[in-house]
Amino acid sequence: MNTSSTTPPVLLACAHGTRDPGGQRAVEALVAAVRARLPGVHVVDTWVDVQEPDLVARTTEHTGDRAVVVPLLLSAGYHVFVDMARAVQSSPHHRVAAALGPDRRLARVLARRLTEALDAAGEAAPGPADEIVTVSAGSSDPRAGQDCERVAAMLAEELGHPVASAYLSAARPALDEALDAARHRIVCGAPERDATGPERRGPEHPASALPARTPQAAADLHQAGTRRGWDAAAPAHDAAGPAATGTVPSGTAPVPGVPALPGRVLLVPYLLAPGFFHGRALAAGADVTAQPLLVHPGDVPPELVDLVVEHYRETASEA
Predict the structure, then answer these.
(1) Beta strand pairing call for 265-270 and 253-254
(2) Rounded to whole angstroms, how far apart are CA atoms 232 and 176?
(3) Buried b / exposed e along 260-274 (16+ C-beta atoms within 10 A)
(4) Label partner for 101 (CA 20 to 30 A): which of 30, 141, 247, 306?
(5) What are the entry keywords (predicted)?
(6) Which pTM was predicted?
């Protein structure tokens, strides 16, 4: 037990958890970088799901210590407001810091990941005819959705290009809906948009009447042509295969004779690390899909280390 005000609180670096080995290694690298940045602090990794020891076990282990839980999560939803709050409620010396996002530094890393993916694929920088979509894991808590929307707006400012939002679970628009809408805008001609906000279009614009995704709607969109003859209905790449690089038109196969779209659909996953959700993003059929914020192998973005350290220090004084 150590509740001395002269001893720094334990930092419980709490990630969601994943079964993906690359995702596990990527998060481990982030925690290791935080540990190196804070040599006088006991930094302990833990998770809210999938991996162990979970946060309840860790807070029990450190019941008598001052401790700060730093969520290695991009937005504050159920895991922060419920799971983590419950895990610390039994100790007056435990606190939960803010989630990592929204923060402009995350948007800068996302912009960098898109540039890397385009460069690796031999593609040009985003142009006026392109559609950019950012996709998040999704949450039933509207506060998490608002956080993700704010980061999408920050990314739009970083890129100087409009960015639409999509979600992989629990929230709308779903990713397939957002990609259909993006292709429809390319086919019909994109409405006037503000690079830092949502589309400004009236009900008379053809893209405003986009139907819900149905087999016929998908067939109609395919008949309108997809860029370079890529068929979004073709079998998806395995997440461990070529698409796992995040630089190829994943979930697609070439179809000779199909006219090309004038623009591309570029997908930027707002995800912390490789795993189930990034595999779904790769299989969704965008023209180029970027890597998540953390990659393995690869260097840990210093922006993420900065955020973890800052959130710990901001909350440590209250523990």
Answers:
(1) unpaired
(2) 10
(3) ebebbbbbbbbbbbb
(4) 247
(5) Lyase, Metal-binding
(6) 0.81
